Each structure stands twice: as structure tokens, then as C-alpha cells.
């Protein structure tokens, strides 16, 4: 409806000499469709124009009516309510979608911009928990959304592949590990060993010392330590990659923390040159008290650099090597302070792009209402969750549609889609709960429901084809039923939805849109005959085809597959 909003804003701004942008941002979707399709509240203009809102509304209504471009225009109190010409909007929306769904969603605002986005970024030799899932799927959806909006996007997996914990894992592996067992199930076994290390270290504190020594060896390039460390990485990556494959998640670069080992000295030197480093209890830190933050530690008292130092080096690298003007980090809310500190230090280092660094935090993931914590040993393994979701999806399909071709592929798409959608459908800052019965409910606000609605549209089109009817690009609109209109009206908001989702970096807005379109389509399907309609058949087939394309595109933005039959 952006086009219609722009048209209204232009007429009004010409007539009243108000800035067009001020008018267009005021235009709203009235909560009650009876009132109109679009509404312009005039209260805000009263002061500038020194007239009453009622008076202005009357004037505006007159101006808009006179254009002859709207079905009806009415001033009610301080509001102007506009009804659009349904036939015109119908044609416009459906044609655009039939031609290229991306066009309905985007005017490519991001052309010329590059975003580096850091997502997933799990830790080597530790389980990829359902908590990490959030970063992965939110990040991947943001990648799709930004690309749709014209951005160049560089996706980065900032693996946690460095740090003292590797000393611990090495010690535990050498003491209690078994190569064969680890090979069978690397991430779980290595994590078990890591947990055992902590248990044993309670009674045997000298283990900590051993671990420190092994990490030191690793830092010094000792061949044995390096070999084990690399082995842990390659085994963990096998597990992670297979999960990414299933989830449809991809990265342009896997650049772990260790990649920055030789790039941190430059950061330390620059900070020192710029007089930003101060000494504090033997460590070198950037004082951030002026911004009410604790100091950002750059070099620890033992001379080691840390997480923040790596993030500073990584940020420079992303800007300098990838040409990124915007850096996005999809990481849990518990790291909010860390990113505020890093961004502030970049600003103090006079990086003009520091203001374009964004921490995209998200709410917690609960599993059947319970909080997960790796520390308390309460780990839910994502592979298990995915496996179970696909199994359950297969059972449902077996029950509903036993003759479906390609059952396994559909079960995979639906099971995985259910997990992804559940994670994306609530505002990203809200906590999400994961319950199989909710996630896979075909009648709820779920991935399977959205995929099913898409498949239903495909099935209508298949049946049409069997009867010799094809959706055509050129069709007459023979009146628009209210249920057709509600669907068009939802579809017509695609561009505003994508833009808001990109501006807020929140895929839930797309998920909401997909659900709204599904509801509207199902109502249309229920209320309006399609194949058996005579006069309206062509327009309804075109509308069905357009909806199918919009849903497939919306699901793609979220990272879900859209099977054509279910
Ligand atoms: N590996 C970290 C963790 O699991 C997340 C890394 C996020 N990215 C970053 N550039 N710091 O907590």
C-alpha cells in the first residue's frame, strides 16, 4: 500500500504545503476495515496550519475526492478515511507478484551498502544448544532480508575456537579420553570430558595448572597441542556443518577467534598510540567510566589478549577486508555489555563506521518451559531436537496424506521448518518456548500451517491445470469480494513489512506477515469459489498464484522451504 500512501501524501502535501514525508508517515491502516483502507489523522497538522483538525480533515477529503482516484473519501472528526479502488490495487499487486515476488517486497534500499553479519558462532568442543539455534536462525533470516532489500551481505561464523578452555579439553582428553569414542560422537564426548574436568578439578586443583600449561603450549605452537586442537575443530565442524545443511544455513566465511591471533597486536599498538590504554591491576584496559561502563580489558595481567581484543581485531578486518560499512552481531542478550564496550572502543579509535555496529540480541529459549544451561548439564542437543521434529512431522504426514510423493523430503522440510518458524515468530527480544506439540501444530500459528497453506494454493493451481485452466498474466477483475480484498490488502503491505523488518532487524515481522497472508488466503479459499466461479475464475486463479508466490518468498526470507504438496 506504499504506492497508495505516497499518492495520498503527494496530493495532501501539495494542497496544504506540508512536507510530503510528514504526511506519508502519518497515514495509517485503520483498525476497523469498515472505516476505510487507509486513514490520515490530521491532529498533528493543526498547530502548523493553525486550524482545527476537523477543518483540515474536511479540506483534505475534498482534495482527495476531487482527484477521482479513490473509491471513497470521508472526513470523520479529525480523520480522513480513504477507500481504495479495489480493482486497480488487485491488478497491481497480483501482476507484480506474478512477475517477480521480490518486487512486491522491496525497492532495494540497500544497494551500494555492505553488511557483515556475525551469527551462530558456536564454541568448538561444546554442544550446539537450542540456545545457539536462535542466533543461527535469526541471523540467517536477517541475511535473507538484507539481501532482499538490496544489501551486499557477508555472513560470518565467528567460531569460538580459542581460549583457555582448550587447555582443559586437552588435559581431559589425554587423561580420560578414548580416540574411538570421541570419533563416534565428537562434540558430545569432548563436552563430557570438559564437564568431567571441572568435576575432577574441584578435588584436584592442580588440574587447572596443567590446563594452563597446555593452553600455553598451544599458544606457543607446540605440535601435539596444535594437532589435538585442530582435530577438535575439524570434528566439531563436521557436526555443526551437518546441522547447518539441514537448517539451510550458510556462511561466506568461517573465521574463528584464533584467526585473529596475529591481528591483535596492531589493535593493542594503536590503542597505546592513541593513549587509550591505562593500567589497572596489572591489566591494560580502556577506561569507559565516562560512559558508565566498566573498563574494557584489552590485555590481561598475564599478557594474554581476550575476547574483546579479538572482537576489535575482527571488526577492523570485516571493515577493511570485506568493505563492510555495517557490522551486525546476532548474539544473546547476556553479551550486551560486551558489545557496548567494543563499539565504544571502536568509536574512541575513531572508526567512523563504529556508529553502524549493531548488537542484535534476542530473548531466551526455553525448552518445555524450562531454562537451559550448559553448566548445570541441562543440555538439549539441537541434532536431537531436529531429528525428533522430523520424525513427528513424518508421523503427521503418514496420517494425513499417506500417498504423498517424496514423503521424506517433505517431512524434513516441515520438521525443520517447524523448529525455525517457532524461533522466528515472536518478537526477537521475547523469550521463546519450545514444545513439540505447539511447534508442529498444523492449525496453530506455526511453520507447518504456513507451509500447508502454500501447498493448498499449489494444489488449487494443480487442479485448475488438470481442468485446463492456467493463471494468466492478463485478466479482468470482475468485482472484488471482501475476502479477496482482505487478502490483497495484506499482500499489498509486503514492502512496508520488509522495510520495517530490516530497520528493526527483526524477522518476526515477516513471520507475522506470512501468518496474516495465510489467514486471509484460507478465508478467501473458504468464502470464494475459484474453479467453479465463471466470471471471477481468472482473477481468482491469478490471486491464488500470486499468493503462492508471496508465501514461498516470505518463507524463503525466514529460511523455510515451501513444499508444493503436503
Ligand atoms: N562464541 C560466542 C558464544 O558462544 C559467541 C560469539 C559471538 N560473536 C562475536 N563476534 N563475539 O558465546
Protein topology:
Elements: H1 2-16, H2 20-26, E1 38-41, H3 46-49, H4 53-67, E2 72-76, E3 79-83, H5 86-99, H6 101-105, E4 114-118, H7 130-148, E5 152-157, H8 165-176, H9 179-184, H10 186-203, H11 206-219, H12 223-247, E6 253-254, H13 264-273, E7 277-280, E8 283-286, E9 296-299, H14 307-322, E10 326-330, H15 336-348, E11 357-360, E12 365-367, E13 370-371, H16 382-400, H17 407-424, E14 432-434, H18 436-439, H19 447-466, H20 482-491, H21 494-504, H22 508-527, H23 537-558
Parallel strand pairs: 4-5, 4-10, 5-6, 10-11, 12-14
Antiparallel strand pairs: 1-3, 2-3, 7-8, 8-9, 12-13
Bound molecules: arginine (ARG).
Arginine is lined by residues 118, 121-123, 158, 160, 311, 314, 329, 331.
Task: Give an account of the 3D structure.
The protein has 566 residues and is an alpha/beta fold. Among the domains are: 83 residues, Arginyl tRNA synthetase N-terminal domain (Gyrase A, domain 2, 2-Layer Sandwich); 254 residues, Rossmann fold (3-Layer(aba) Sandwich), CATH 3.40.50.620. It contains 23 helices and 14 strands. The strands form four sheets. The chain has a five-stranded parallel beta sheet with strand order 6-5-4-10-11, with helices on both faces. It has a three-stranded antiparallel beta sheet with strand order 1-3-2, covered by helices on one side. The longest helix is centred in the middle third of the chain and has 25 residues. The protein is globular. The two termini are 32 Å apart. The site of arginine has 10 residues, from helix 14.
Amino acid at each position: 500500500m506504499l504506492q497508495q500512501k505516497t499518492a495520498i501524501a503527494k496530493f495532501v502535501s501539495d494542497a496544504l504545503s506540508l512536507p510530503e514525508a510528514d504526511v506519508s508517515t502519518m497515514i495509517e491502516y485503520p483498525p476497523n476495515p469498515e472505516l476505510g483502507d487507509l486513514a490520515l489523522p490530521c491532529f498533528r497538522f493543526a498547530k502548523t496550519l493553525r486550524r482545527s483538525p476537523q477543518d483540515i480533515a474536511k479540506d483534505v477529503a475534498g482534495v482527495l475526492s476531487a482527484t477521482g482516484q479513490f473509491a471513497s473519501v470521508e472526513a470523520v472528526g479529525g480523520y480522513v478515511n480513504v477507500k481504495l479502488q479495489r480493482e486497480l490495487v488487485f491488478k497491481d499487486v497480483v501482476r507484480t507478484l506474478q512477475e517477480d515476488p521480490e518486487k512486491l517486497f522491496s525497492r532495494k534500499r540497500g544497494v551500494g551498502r555492505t553488511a557483515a553479519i556475525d551469527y551462530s558462532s558456536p564454541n568448538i568442543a561444546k554442544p550446539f544448544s537450542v540456545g545457539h539455534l536462535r542466533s543461527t536462525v535469526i541471523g540467517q533470516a536477517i541475511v535473507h532480508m538484507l539481501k532482499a532489500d538490496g544489501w551486499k551481505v557477508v555472513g560470518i561464523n565467528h567460531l569460538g575456537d580459542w581460549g583457555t578452555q582448550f587447555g582443559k579439553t586437552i588435559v581431559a582428553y589425554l587423561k580420560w579420553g578414548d580416540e574411538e569414542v570421541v570419533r563416534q560422537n565428537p562434540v558430545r564426548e569432548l563436552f563430557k570430558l570438559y564437564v568431567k574436568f571441572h568435576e575432577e578439578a574441584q578435588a584436584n586443583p592442580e588440574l587447572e595448572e596443567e590446563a594452563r600449561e597446555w593452553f600455553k603450549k598451544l599458544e606457543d605452537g607446540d605440535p601435539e597441542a596444535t594437532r589435538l586442537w585442530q582435530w577438535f575443530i575439524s570434528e566439531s565442524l563436521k557436526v555443526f556443518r551437518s546441522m547447518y545443511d539441514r537448517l539451510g544455513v550458510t556462511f561466506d566465511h568461517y573465521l574463528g577467534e584464533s584467526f585473529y591471533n596475529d591481528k591483535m597486536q596492531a589493535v593493542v599498538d594503536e590503542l597505546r598510540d592513541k593513549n587509550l590504554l591505562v593500567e589497572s591491576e596489572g591489566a591494560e584496559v580502556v577506561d569507559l567510566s565516562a560512559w558508565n561502563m566498566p573498563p574494557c580489558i584489552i590485555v590481561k595481567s598475564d599478557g594474554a589478549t581476550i575476547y574483546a581484543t579479538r572482537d576489535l581485531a575482527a571488526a577492523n578486518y570485516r571493515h577493511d577486508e570485506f568493505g563492510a560499512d555495517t557490522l551486525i552481531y546476532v548474539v544473546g542478550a547476556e553479551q550486551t555489555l560486551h558489545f557496548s564496550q567494543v563499539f565504544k572502543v571502536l568509536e574512541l579509535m575513531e572508526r567512523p563506521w563504529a556508529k553502524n555496529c549493531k548488537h542484535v540480541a534476542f530473548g531466551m529459549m526455553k525448552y518445555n518451559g524450562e531454562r537451559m544451561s550448559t553448566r548445570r548439564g541441562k543440555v538439549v542437543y539441537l541434532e536431537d531436537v531436529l531429528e525428533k521434529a522430523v520424525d513427528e512431522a513424518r508421523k503427521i504426514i503418514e496420517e494425513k496424506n499417506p500417498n504423498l510423493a517424496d514423503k521424506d523430503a517433505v517431512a524434513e522440510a516441515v520438521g525443520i521448518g517447524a523448529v525455525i518458524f517457532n524461533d522466528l515468530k515472536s518478537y526477537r527480544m521475547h523469550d521463546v518456548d519450545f514444545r513439540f506439540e505447539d511447534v508442529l501444530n498444523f492449525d496453530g500459528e506455526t511453520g507447518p500451517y504456513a507451509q500447508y497453506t502454500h501447498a493448498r494454493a499449489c494444489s488449487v493451481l494443480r487442479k485448475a491445470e488438470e481442468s485446463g485452466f492456467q493463471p494468466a498474466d492478463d485478466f479482468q477483475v470482475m468485482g472484488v469480494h471482501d475476502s479477496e480484498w482482505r487478502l490483497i490488502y495484506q499482500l499489498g503491505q509486503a514492502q512496508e513489512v520488509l522495510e520495517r523488518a530490516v530497520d528493526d532487524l527483526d524477522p518476526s515481522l515477516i513471520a507475522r506477515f506470512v501468518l496474516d497472508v495465510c489467514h486471509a488466503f484460507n478465508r478467501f479459499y473458504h468464502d470464494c469459489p475459484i474453479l467453479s466461479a465463471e466470471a471471477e475464475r481468472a482473477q481468482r486463479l491469478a490471486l491464488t498464484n500470486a499468493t503462492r508466490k508471496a508465501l514461498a518468498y516470505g518463507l524463503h526470507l525466514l529460511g523455510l522451504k515451501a513444499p508444493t504438496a503436503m
